[in-house]
Amino acid sequence: MGHGRATLQQLLGIELPIVQAPMAGVQGSALAVAVSEAGGLGSLPAAMLGPDALRDELLALRRGTARPFNVNFFCHPQPASDPAREARWRQALAPCYAELGLDPQAQPAAPARVPFGTAALEVLEALRPPVVSFHFGLPEPALLARVRSWGARVLSSATTVDEARWLEARGVDAIIAQGLEAGGHRGMFLTADLATQLGTMALVPQVARAVQVPVIAAGGIGCREAVAAALALGAAGVQVGTAYLLCPEATTSAVHRAALAGEAARVTALTNLYTGRPARGIVNGLMRRLGPLHPDAPAFPLAAAAIAPLRARAESLGSGEYSPLWAGQDTSGCRAVPAGRLTRELAGLAA
């Protein structure tokens, strides 16, 4: 690893260099507990949790494991409302509403994705999680200083060398180098240009050379051979998400599980249709119809509101054509086995 940096296991107090990716919408505390108990770092996605739900999940984590775990938050800017863009977006979706027999004028509430702020921080200060991670950069320095005040380790995602250097300059303890292959939202925050995005195997060694802190490789890692390859390229550990989606501890929906287990999972694309920010998912009906990237999709996370009724109606009919079927480019590691067993196998250990 060079540079005399600590191992990821020393830094985070874990046994195996495996971090379970926080995946909002498809997991709660149960998956995180299972991974932490197996010796990895389980993660709780908190971007869609209000303070009460966050407290309940943290208490469940504390009951479920005495080992370290991670709590993950988004740091996106709150977008300004853009009624003209919203109207164009609803117009683009109008034929879909008509086909599913829905009222295009209905104004449903979508699950809110809220950036990290004082309400979440107060819950964290009471329960002191050992690791806190961020996506889309970092919170403002005063909030970050309070997270550090109880000794929490801080992680954040970088998709470019520039982002990695930016994070290191602000004192993060380890950097998640998220390659283009990764499922779900790009962690990009210094640029919106998708041309800057590199594959994991190109990104990881460049980030590892550019920073002194441990680097966690993410994207396309779903088997022990891929873990070994990432470590050989200078990563101190790996973050794995997609491979856990079929585990019994995940809350992945029936339509999402079916897509992951079928031929459709071979083709993924970056799309902004479901949230307004590029995220990788299995190509489905809405992405084929509108194209995966649409200029009228409202800014993150506002695009989700108009999609919510389409998704709910389609899923009630057993269809995932309007659902964000987040997945990375390699779904071959997805197996319906207990998450603890998968964690140990990824680390090259017998289950």
Task: Please characterize this protein's 3D structure.
With 351 residues, this protein is of the alpha/beta class. It contains 13 helices and 11 strands. The protein has helices at residues 8-12, 29-37, 51-64, 83-99, 118-127, 141-148, 161-169, 200-210, 224-232, 254-261, 285-290, 304-316, 339-346, and strands spanning 18-20, 42-45, 69-74, 131-135, 153-158, 174-178, 184-185, 215-218, 237-240, 268-271, 279-282. Helix 7 links the parallel strand 5 (153-158) and strand 6. Helix 2 packs parallel to helix 3 and helix 3 packs parallel to helix 5.
Question: How are the SSEs placed, and which strands pair?
Answer:
Blueprint: H1 8-12, E1 18-20, H2 29-37, E2 42-45, H3 51-64, E3 69-74, H4 83-99, H5 118-127, E4 131-135, H6 141-148, E5 153-158, H7 161-169, E6 174-178, E7 184-185, H8 200-210, E8 215-218, H9 224-232, E9 237-240, H10 254-261, E10 268-271, E11 279-282, H11 285-290, H12 304-316, H13 339-346
